[in-house]
């Protein structure tokens, strides 16, 4: 497919030119989203780690589950704040008539669900940028929650094994390391 030098393509019968302004705003908003997410994940891990140390001796099912739920709520708040930043940008640029539609659109695009609304022609590239930001931050959140989930499961397995009179499960070496006999 040949793309003309001015990067103009037809979308719905309308000429659409990708502008440098649109690209710069897109990469800037993705970078801002990632920075916010990095701060949020760091805070979530600090809080979860502090709670883990504080309740280490009394840790049971409900306390461990509570830490997981609190961590998930913190990450949800971070994601919703990131969507707010995108929505504020769309409202500032008058992409939609009111902040509610801006937030609705941004949330649906961020989660890659998609929306009945579309951005104005000169901002359409941002629909893909916000979806990319959402995919990256959801993957990051999953990676941050995984060690917490694994520790919770390990604690519960140890508790169930000891409760039924079995031996304590053997410690498994970290990935990439072999155990020494």
Entry summary:
This protein is mainly alpha-helical and 181 residues long. 65% of the residues lie in helices and 4% in strands. The chain starts with 7 loop residues before the first strand and ends in an 18-residue tail after the last helix.
SSE order and pairing:
Elements: E1 8-11, E2 14-17, H1 20-54, H2 61-92, H3 99-110, H4 125-163
Antiparallel strand pairs: 1-2
Shape descriptor reads elongated
Structural class category: mainly alpha
Characterize the largest beta sheet: strand count, sense, and whether it forms a barrel. 2 strands, antiparallel
Number of beta strands: 2
In words, what does this structure look like?
The chain has 181 residues and is mainly alpha-helical. It has one domain (20-158). Helix content is 65%, strand content 4%. It has helices at residues 20-54, 61-92, 99-110, 125-163, and strands at residues 8-11, 14-17. It has a two-stranded antiparallel sheet with strand order 1-2. β1 (8-11) and β2 form a beta hairpin. The longest helix is centred in the C-terminal third of the chain and has 39 residues, at 125-163. It is elongated and about 75 Å long. It starts with 7 loop residues before the first strand and ends in an 18-residue tail after the last helix. Residues 1-10 have low confidence and may be disordered.
């Amino acid at each position: 497919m040949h793309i003309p030098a001015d990067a103009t393509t037809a979308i719905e019968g309308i000429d659409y030119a990708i502008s440098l302004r649109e690209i710069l705003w897109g990469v800037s908003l993705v970078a801002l989203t990632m920075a916010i997410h990095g701060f949020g994940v760091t805070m979530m891990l600090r809080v979860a780690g502090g709670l883990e140390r504080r309740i280490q001796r009394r840790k049971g099912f409900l306390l461990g589950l509570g830490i997981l739920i609190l961590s998930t709520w913190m990450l949800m708040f971070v994601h919703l704040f990131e969507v707010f930043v995108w929505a504020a940008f769309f409202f500032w640029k008058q992409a939609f008539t009111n902040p509610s539609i801006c937030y609705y659109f941004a949330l649906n695009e961020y989660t890659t669900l998609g929306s009945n609304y579309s951005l104005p022609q000169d901002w359409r590239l941002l629909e893909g940028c916000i979806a990319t930001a959402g995919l990256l931050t959801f993957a990051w959140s999953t990676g941050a929650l995984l060690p917490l989930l694994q520790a919770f499961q390990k604690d519960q397995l140890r508790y169930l094994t000891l409760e039924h009179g079995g031996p304590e499960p053997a410690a498994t070496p970290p990935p990439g390391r072999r155990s020494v006999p």
